[in-house]
């Protein structure tokens, strides 16, 4: 008896106030959709080749990428490794000159992380100039290569060029945000 009475009162209350319930449910749905959209398309956006993205005032564009084990003359570089070469355009929009930390430029092949190999640029001179910590002057645009040495037998489904966007230290724990 009490359960039926409680059900009836809740039903009458909902019917009398359905406009307000509709407004509240609509607002909650709108906020949820907005949060999901911003999380997927702003905070964790994945950029494709030829897309522009900015990190610390430097506008990047991945122009091209290559996977090879041959140098510019067609000779094998190393029988144990193959190389992924990424050609990147960079424009410094800061007021002052800047340079990049190459340890912040990572290549992720599935779940494995690789760092640029600075000693291998000479093998790929035909593709462009390798970045070796040069200054990027304000307002100037540069094209550089980043070469990643990976074991020859490495198989991967997904390759991601990652850059550290920012580092946060909270309660002694370090976390970093990346641009992919």
Concise account of the structure shown:
With 180 residues, this protein is an alpha+beta fold. 23% of the residues lie in helices and 36% in strands.
Strands, total number: 8
Q: What class would the helix/strand composition place it in?
A: alpha+beta
Instruction: Indicate the proportion of strand residues.
Output: 35-45%
Give the strand line-up of the largest sheet.
1-2-3-6
End-to-end distance: 61 Å
Helix content: 10-25%
Give the mean pLDDT. 80
Order of helices and strands: HHEEEEEEEE
Query: How would you describe the shape?
Result: elongated
The biggest beta sheet reads: 4 strands, antiparallel
Individual helix count: 2
Low-confidence stretches: 166-176
Overview of the structural elements:
With 180 residues, the chain is α+β, with helices and mostly antiparallel strands. The protein is 23% helix and 36% strand. The chain contains two helices and eight strands. A hairpin with a 2-residue loop joins β4 (105-109) and β5 (112-114). The model is unreliable at 166-176 (pLDDT under 50).
